[in-house]
Amino acid sequence: MGAFSIWHWVIVLLLIGVPVFFAVRSAAKPSRNPEALVGFGGWLMLLAIGQALSPLRTLADFANSADGYQQLMTLSNGPLAVYGEVALNLAFLALQLVVLVSMLRRSHRFPQLFLFQWVAIPVVFILDTIWIVSSLGVPVNQVLAGDALVAPIASFVGTGIWVAYVYKSVRVRDTFIRTNASEQIASAS
């Protein structure tokens, strides 16, 4: 990390900051035509694509971990470590699928579920680290060696940007909250 110069940080800030600025700015702007900001369009379409791909990424991570799991199975308490990690990842996959279904159904619960999914990223990572350390009896720095923190931190930051969008966006509010409220009133009449 010592070789990461100030210019690298400036580039990272620009790559993250500029899109966030424009996403938040455009999300908070009221439209001249309120009906135009309902449904999957604009930035919400990008979020929908990302949410649809997230379970596939989790499954790809499972596939990439298969060799590591086979090596761990030969160790003492290895099966316990593997089964625990698989259970945590399956629980996270189930949460991703619940969030995806709520998004596709335009449920008013989607923003809250999306927030839960964001919070689950570090929770699953921390629980997984604790599980591996305790079940295998290895030091934490061995589990977190190399770039083990890069993917979870990037995922947490990236999803956090989308959480900010979800809670600021007029389109999200109109698609997931106003649409469902008007449908419930129409069905009650």
From TrEMBL:
The chain crosses the membrane at residues 6-24, 36-60, 80-101, 113-136, 148-167. It comes from Mesorhizobium erdmanii. The lineage of its organism: Bacteria, Pseudomonadati, Pseudomonadota, Alphaproteobacteria, Hyphomicrobiales. It comes from the Bacteria. This is DUF2569 family protein. It holds the Pfam family DUF2569. Signal peptide: none annotated. Keywords: Membrane, Transmembrane, Transmembrane helix.
